[in-house]
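Explain this protein:
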Amino acid sequence: MKSGQKFCLDLDWNLLKIFHSIVEANGVSSAANALWRKQSTISLALQRLEKNVGKKLCRRGPAGFALTEEGRILYECVSEVYAKVNRIPDSLDNASQELRGRLHLRTISNFVSTKFDKLLMSYTTRCPLVELHIEVAPWEAISLAVLRSEVDVGIAPVHVQYPELSYELLTREMHLVYCGKRHHLFGATVKDVAELAQEPLILTGADEPDSLTYYRIQHGLGKRVAATTPNLEEAKRLAILGLGICLLPDRMAAADVKKGLLWPLTSKAVGSGCDVYAITNRHAPRRLVVDIFLEELAGKRIEAPARASARA
């Protein structure tokens, strides 16, 4: 094909529309009927397009209508353009309407973050008619849900970053080892986490990030398991009851530490850091409700008019 700006300037874009109709109708005669044009007119348009691109785009004969490889590639390109042009009326019509819709979020359990709280407040202030739909799931399942476009945004730590997904660092969670006031180590502080290897541990199972698993194994924690639960709130409750020590996010445990119900046996200097990301799908259809959320996260602002753009 011709390349660059000259190709765009020379091309009659109406020919692309006719070519798209030919492929959709599976033949020149069917396209002529659909477009209310003479068959000779459609055939001539196809010939002009083939001359412009310098390639044979289809074959017609006893076997029926079929695209060449070049025709298939052009059809895919034209279909993308056609879909975008087809959405223009809806976008323009919705420009005078308030932004509505639903933003689907899936997050790890008991996630405590001032930044995330402020993000939700600033987002709902800008988009008061958008419904937030928030679900809780194990961290591993969240990236896969975003990859399958089941949710708009995932909030979770990650082990492997998929090229199809975008990751915006939200915060770093620090996990410390805690015990309840009935535990014999309550009030003590250990400098070497390995000193706790023989203490019964409350495991968080499927909700335990990889970085925390490596940290545990490195220091020998979990040789003795007191209980296992995928729910952090339940793990914290068991720790408060004194069933064993437990690795918990420091922000989640802060209120109970202040009440004297939990005690951090380790300091942040020997804690385990876990990066939590806002995860989105690069290839998902663009939605303004998601774009505004990500702009708020990045500390930037898209100007969504008081009567905002495209309805989600």
In short: Residues 69-86 form the longest helix (18 residues). The radius of gyration is 29 Å. The first strand starts at residue 58 and ends at 59. Residues 75 and 199 are 65 Å apart (CA to CA).
